[in-house]
Design a protein that fits this description.
Elements lengths: L3 E5 L2 E5 L10 H9 L9 H9 L29 H12 L1
Antiparallel strand pairs: 1-2
């Protein structure tokens, strides 16, 4: 199982969390939290609206490290296709 990763004052903590529900998709974990089944460890940008509306409450905020953003990795051995370039631009500026 994936360990939840926390950090406080540059001190990392990995928590192995158990429970009756296990998800391999953050959308399903979020849905379960919204339905009152417990905590969900999901990216902040997925829950901002729900927190603002009062549907969810952030916990352990001082243990959550800042997230620098998403990264896209691709092989530089081949020339990227035009479609790939459009995708990169959409992700970068969208």
């Amino acid at each position: 199982m994936y360990a939840w990763e926390f950090e406080k004052r540059r001190r990392p903590l990995r928590a192995h969390v158990g429970g009756q529900l296990v998800f391999n998709d953050t959308k399903h974990a979020l849905r379960a939290a919204l339905d009152g089944f417990g905590l969900a460890y999901v990216p902040e940008d997925m829950v901002t609206n729900h927190v603002e509306k009062g549907h969810l409450v952030r916990v352990l905020m001082d243990w959550c490290p800042p997230f620098p953003g998403y990264h896209l990795y691709y092989s530089s051995r081949r020339k990227p296709s035009q479609a790939f370039g459009i995708l990169v631009d959409a992700l970068r500026y969208g």
